[in-house]
Amino acid sequence: MSDCIFCKIINGEIPSAKVYEDEHVVAFLDISQVTKGHTLVIPKVHKENVYDLTPEIAGKVFEVVPKIANSIKKQFQPEGLNLLNNNGKIAGQTVFHYHLHLIPRYGKGDGFG
Ligand code: 5GP
Ligand code: ZN
């Protein structure tokens, strides 16, 4: 989609700090990290939100989540990690290209929750 920020990140029109990329999926640091290492995982194909995903695309996204979670764990050594996905404006979705937040947790006062 031509006016989608995340499609522009995928095709390199907008720079991002990519931490993972394969044929189907890209992961990059959130521009406004709620905690250190806050990462977004997205499918390369433009799908608006969870309602729009096919099982195959959902599978491709979740297939790489353990790998990315473990690399966040190794690099940032958080005490825990939240997975979060907002669907629809009322639920807090601001970018309408499906994305899964990986939010490392460091304890009380870490900025999230
Ligand atoms: P949502 O609120 O839709 O669940 O999350 C959208 C996320 O995308 C936000 O956390 C926001 O900081 C992030 N974001 C928005 N624009 C950009 C951008 O241009 N680059 C990166 N890396 N993250 C972005
Ligand atoms: Zn898109």
UniProtKB/TrEMBL annotation:
Stretch forming the signal peptide: none
Motif (Histidine triad motif): 97-101
Domain annotation HIT: ranges: 5-113
Name used for this protein in its record: Histidine triad (HIT) family protein
Native organism: Metabacillus malikii
Boundaries of the shown chain within the full protein: 1 to 113 of 141
